[in-house]
Specification:
- With 143 residues, this protein is mainly beta.
- The protein has a single domain, classed as Alpha-Beta Horseshoe (Leucine-rich repeat, LRR (right-handed beta-alpha superhelix)).
- Helix content is 7%, strand content 20%.
- It starts with 8 loop residues before the first strand and ends with a strand.
């Protein structure tokens, strides 16, 4: 368990984190790397409302991050299930590579996106990407 509201960046890479908990709902953490934490549960991560950059790659299931509305950079590569990202409208960089469980309706409201990494995924079609680019002409996709 992690308890600290005064840090601005935290990295828990290659560990097996079972719980992340901020001491207050307005914790000062802005950057958090929790990649490769296969036993990670993100129940308390929604309390870290000042997060601007979050890496949850290789974590299996990602849910309950919809309250992290200040996020600008989000890495969700190599996960099996991803939910609740459509309300993260401040995102400018979203990495969804190597995921096959996300659909275009999950990202259709993310009109501030500048970079969308969709490499090695087969769910989102070229026509869906074209439609998304029409809504957001400055979007660069990697596929």
């Amino acid at each position: 368990m992690i308890r600290n509201s005064k840090i601005s960046a935290f990295i828990l890479t290659l560990g097996f984190c079972s719980n992340v908990q901020a001491t207050t709902p307005s914790a000062d953490v802005e950057t958090l790397n929790l990649c490769r934490n296969t036993t990670f549960t993100n129940t308390d991560i929604s309390k870290l409302t000042n997060l601007k950059a979050l890496d949850l790659s290789i974590n299996n299931t990602i849910t309950d991050i919809s309250k992290l509305t200040k996020l600008r950079h989000l890495t969700l590569s190599y996960n099996n299930t991803i939910n609740d990202i459509n309300d993260l409208t401040n995102l400018i960089d979203l990495d969804l590579c190597n995921n096959n469980t996300i659909t275009i309706t999950d990202i259709s409201k993310l009109t501030n996106l500048r970079i969308l990494d969709l490499r090695n995924q087969t769910v989102i079609t070229e026509s869906e990407i074209s439609n998304l680019k029409r809504k957001n002409p400055s979007l660069e996709t990697l596929k």
